[in-house]
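So, who can interpret the following?
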Amino acid sequence: MGLFGKSEPKAPPADPAYILAEAQECLKEKDMEGALAKFDELCALPVQSPLPLLSRATCLLQLQKYERVIEDCTKVLKFLNSDLNGHEEEGCTTVHSLALMRMAKAHKELGQMDEAKSALMRRNVVEHKLGRDNVDSEDLVDENMADEWKEKGNAEYKQENWTQALDYYRSGLSCDMYNAKLHGNTCMTLIKLRKWSQALKHAEQCIVLEPEWVKGYYMKGMILSNESKLEQARDVLRKAKSMEPQNTQIGELLSEVEARVDYVESRLRRRKPQTAEKPKDEDSGTEQPVEDVDSDEDYCEDGSCRTSKTIKLKVTRKDVVNVAVDVCAAMVGVALVWWFVRQDA
């Protein structure tokens, strides 16, 4: 409090543009700690933008503070996605894809290869949906090592050692997660192990990475068929058939799936409740008893087969009322007879 009870004047709010300029100056001088302090100050302001968090994550990555990188990138992903002001950075054109790339690098440095792979796959999806698939990730890809793992996996696959083959293929993907062939081999191995949900993810990744490679669609159709998602399988296989009309494997599987779809639809038609208007009693307007022919059991007699029928008898409200009136009338009649007999006596 100042003289005469007046409060001290408040300090003017910090100017984000000024703080950002100071942070950029620190970066030019390669003063990462100083830049981080400025980014911390900037992120503490009530600014509704993901860019300060993304900039701090970049600084933290240089300082090898990988856990904090992941925290900041996770916060960035909670904002709506937007373009990076019309420019491209490390093959990324949006805020989300760059955050996922930073996150993947942090996970890789921490030895968390599965998490790194997941982040990069998500980044791929973001860019693919926008039609921007130029990926600059040489520091995350070791193609030679990936090929070595693939060859080892192929050898085990031929020996029907599915589990060992799967381990080798996954090791290959940890070196090159953009390798569609490795995703395809992993998918086929998971199909052999009947792990449908895992296999489906790799089939879809094949389609994302190589949309013109028909095997991705074929594998996806096979998986959906085994999961009894027949209509989805049919649609995917029709897409594959249109890509390679002469492919006999696709044609045979598509014919099988279409036959199953037709069979299921015919069964549903047989089980569908009758929608025809039932006959009504002219007096009461209630439904008359009708025959129910919904039976799956067939029997043969005298060499001919027919479907057994079950008769359902239905008691209407009018029937109940009529019986009640008759009973009451009878009781009244008995009472009157008894009363007259007593009078005569």
About this structure: The chain has 14 helices and four strands. Strands lie at 291-292, 298-301, 304-307, 310-311. The mean pLDDT is 76.
